[in-house]
Specification:
Length: 295
């Protein structure tokens, strides 16, 4: 089992109908200090929080501070002076004396795996995890994708990915997306089944594929007819919080209008995307890998 990347302090909690819960975390200070009851970095962050909560009048609540000073916060909505609070936190931490670092063993750098030819479809194993952070015009946070089980849909085995109360079904044969549920209720489903494929194998630069499917959202009583064309554009080295990876960049666009739809960077080492950018009705959204664990 491998563990690569950045430990996530707190996972994004699910939205509810009555309240939107926002989760944020900021890297304010990194030290090599040995843990105590509180590390110096934790003391600095907690002191800054006391100052900034009073100064900005926010109702942001810091829920946890990691030994290196990173903190997780929650707020009921975005009308709680969040930008002022985070600016104040950065300023207060910057004013604090930096604790003297203690010499510690430095782990060896992760050996990068280069792309040497066409990428075959990997076999995912139950228990594998990928943790991402995301940002959109209206919110941001983190989420964990965990391969929970393999289940048959219409006599086809599917990987079932859990993210909180959500489950996403991908056909084992080709990694095609079939449907997404929330607490057992279908949020969206594509027809023909598994017609939506963010990556096609064996993957190589220059590979082009088309998709044409209907996406039904029962809770919204809406069905969209979607046509996409995707191109494995080029090999690209990309750095995200989990590290630097050799990837193949995949660009997709609307086949009817030519409008850009998404860009993704697939890493054979991660067996998944390390970064994605895509267009939604609310605007451009992105997510990038924080850590991953493969079984």
């Amino acid at each position: 089992m491998r563990l690569i990347g950045l430990a996530v302090i707190e996972r994004l909690q699910e939205k509810t109908m009555t309240r939107r819960l926002l989760l944020g975390f900021s890297l304010l200070l990194a030290t090599g200090c040995a843990p105590a009851t509180n590390t110096p970095a934790q003391d600095v962050t907690w002191a800054a929080y006391q100052v900034c909560r009073t100064r900005t009048g926010t109702n942001v609540v810091v829920t946890q501070v990691s030994p290196d000073g990173r903190y997780a916060w929650i707020a009921p909505d975005r009308g709680t002076r969040v930008p002022e609070f985070e600016t104040c936190m950065r300023e207060e931490v910057a004013k604090a004396p930096r604790p003297q670092a203690v010499t510690a063993a430095v782990p060896p750098p992760r050996a990068r795996k280069t792309i040497t030819g066409p990428i075959d479809k990997p076999e995912w194993k139950v228990g594998s995890e990928w943790v991402y952070r995301y940002e959109s015009p209206s919110e941001g946070g983190t989420f964990t994708w965990r391969l929970n089980r393999i289940e048959n849909l219409a006599n086809e085995p599917h990987y079932v990915i859990k993210a909180g109360s959500r489950e996403m079904f991908y056909r084992v044969a080709d990694r095609g997306f079939t449907k997404e549920t929330l607490n057992g209720r279908t949020l969206r489903e594509v027809s023909p089944s598994a017609a939506w494929r963010s990556v096609t194998f064996p993957l190589r630069v220059g590979l082009l594929w088309d998709m044409k499917y209907s996406e039904t959202r029962p809770t919204e009583q809406r069905t969209d007819n979607i046509e996409r064309r995707c191109l494995a554009e080029k090999e690209e080295s990309i750095t995200v919080p989990a590290g630097t990876f050799d990837t193949i960049r995949i660009d997709c666009w609307n086949s009817r209008t030519g409008a850009w739809a998404s860009t993704a960077w697939y890493s054979p080492e991660v067996t998944h995307m390390v970064k994605e950018e895509f267009a939604l009705r609310t605007g451009r959204t992105s997510r990038e890998l924080l850590m991953f664990r493969l079984k």
